[in-house]
């Protein structure tokens, strides 16, 4: 992972930057103002796809595309700003992939709920999340999770991010014969590979801003696509501005969602959001040493509180639940260590209430190299797992491998928890299972039964 100098670039070096240094403690965290801003840009570039992808999925549920886009930008701005100013962590909060699919394809298209009632389910899951965040539940769960599983969650998320990057680039595609295979060896794939290798070389040479430079370089290489190589044009001008649409604001049916039949949906959303948030904080804190004195993720209670209230606010705005983004690892890998990263991300989101057409200038293959390399950085804790002890290694292995293979962080965690509890139970090591771990395993079973 890149290391940055904290001397000359310190925000305290300029009078106007001293209040930033005092509030965010940039130098104390081993960073600089420049590095924090670059890290925010890196995370934004790696995750800005959500501005158009989230509305595309929610529109299948009946929410107008333009209204969902405006809601996506607003909740990303507000929740990331709160994460930066209140929790002071370098983490993006935005409508999550997986949660939007659960909203659209399970609640609305699968169970037949109206999108207004489905938004009500999102709201109540956020309320329950807020209750859990305000009490010491998250601390009990963290202390109950064995170190091997904590390391495994970090590594599994890293592989998951890498898989997302390879998929976005078309490097890995679906196959009826082998499930996945190498994509077509065309100009797009060659462009991605050149961008990937160039970014990796800059990381090896410790270029400050390597991930951003890699995104910029790959975008420039993508510009001639379809003009010189006869394929679909990937980078083209599609306009400058578009007016925001607030037609979905306050359309949530809060009371209509309070039916016994809808409780499983509320629970699944709660489980998914809570453990995704917890695992994200644990992974980032482990990979970048963002920890408090007691070894727990830094400012965890505040971070979880922000995540919970972001889910509550998302529903009235007209979008599925907001959650911590694993792509935050792009900024952490860039050297970001403070809430200034999240503030930068928030400010970058806001203009796209009006400038969303500009997103077409950065294709998916341009951010893919950064996501692939984030996976590399997050695999470091794999060496801390005691692979010689099978009772510790197997649950860790299961959690690591299932996250990318099932395309779900939650499923990887659930099976990791379950296997740990079952192995300890049937080998007579009950003292190793803490109460919160029993509860987590039971919730994992309930989640699996409800959703599958």
TrEMBL record:
A Pfam family this chain is assigned to: Xan_ur_permease
Chief localization: membrane
Location of this chain's protein in the cell: Cell membrane
Transmembrane segments: 37-57, 63-85, 92-111, 117-137, 149-167, 187-205, 210-230, 260-284, 338-355, 362-382, 394-423, 435-451
Molecular-function annotations in GO: purine nucleobase transmembrane transporter activity
Record's bilayer topology term: Multi-pass membrane protein
Tagged with keyword Transport: yes
Keyword Cell membrane: yes
Keywords, alphabetical: Cell membrane, Membrane, Transmembrane, Transmembrane helix, Transport
Family designation: Belongs to the nucleobase:cation symporter-2 (NCS2) (TC 2.A.40) family. Azg-like subfamily.
Protein name (record): AGZA family xanthine/uracil permease-like MFS transporter
GO CC entries: plasma membrane
InterPro entries: Azg-like, Azg-like_bact_archaea, NCS2
């Amino acid at each position: 992972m890149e290391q940055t100098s904290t001397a000359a670039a310190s925000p305290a070096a300029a009078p106007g930057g001293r209040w930033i240094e005092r509030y965010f403690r940039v130098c104390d965290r081993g960073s600089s103002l420049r590095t924090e801003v670059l890290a925010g840009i890196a995370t934004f570039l790696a995750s800005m796809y959500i501005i158009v992808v989230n509305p595309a999925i929610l529109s299948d549920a009946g929410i107008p595309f333009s209204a969902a886009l405006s809601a996506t930008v607003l909740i990303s701005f507000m929740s990331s700003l709160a994460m930066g100013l209140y929790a002071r962590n370098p983490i993006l909060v935005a409508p999550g992939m997986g949660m939007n699919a659960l909203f659209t394809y399970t609640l609305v298209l699968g169970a037949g709920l109206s999108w207004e009632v489905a938004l009500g389910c999102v709201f109540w899951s956020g309320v329950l999340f807020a209750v859990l965040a305000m009490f010491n539940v998250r601390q009990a769960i963290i202390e109950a999770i064995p170190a091997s599983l904590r390391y495994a969650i970090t590594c599994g998320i890293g592989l998951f991010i890498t898989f997302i990057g390879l998929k976005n680039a078309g490097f890995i595609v679906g196959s009826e014969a082998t499930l996945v295979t190498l994509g077509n060896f065309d100009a797009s794939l060659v462009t991605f590979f050149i961008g990937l290798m160039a970014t990796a070389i800059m990381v090896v040479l410790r270029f400050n801003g390597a991930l951003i430079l890699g995104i910029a370089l790959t975008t420039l290489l993508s510009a001639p696509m379809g003009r010189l190589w006869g394929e679909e044009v990937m980078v083209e001008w599609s306009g400058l501005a578009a007016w925001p649409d607030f037609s979905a604001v306050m359309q949530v049916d809060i009371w209509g969602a309070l039916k016994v039949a809808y409780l499983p949906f509320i629970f699944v959303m709660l489980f998914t959001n809570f453990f995704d948030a917890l695992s994200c904080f644990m992974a980032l804190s482990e990979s970048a040493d963002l920890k408090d004195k007691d070894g727990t993720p830094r400012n965890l209670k505040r971070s979880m509180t922000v995540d919970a209230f972001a889910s509550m606010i998302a529903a009235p705005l007209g979008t599925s639940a907001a959650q911590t983004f694993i792509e935050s690892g792009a900024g952490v890998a860039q050297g970001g260590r403070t809430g200034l990263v999240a503030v930068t991300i928030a400010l970058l989101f806001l203009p796209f209430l009006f400038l969303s057409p500009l997103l077409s200038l950065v294709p998916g293959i341009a951010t893919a190299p950064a996501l692939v390399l984030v996976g590399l950085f997050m695999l470091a804790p794999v060496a801390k797992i005691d692979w010689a002890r099978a009772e510790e290694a197997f649950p860790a292995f299961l959690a690591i491998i299932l996250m990318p293979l099932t395309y779900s962080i939650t499923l990887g965690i659930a099976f990791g928890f379950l296997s740990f509890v079952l192995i300890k139970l049937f080998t007579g090591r009950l003292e190793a299972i803490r109460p919160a771990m029993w509860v987590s395993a039971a919730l994992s079973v309930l989640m699996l039964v409800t959703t599958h």
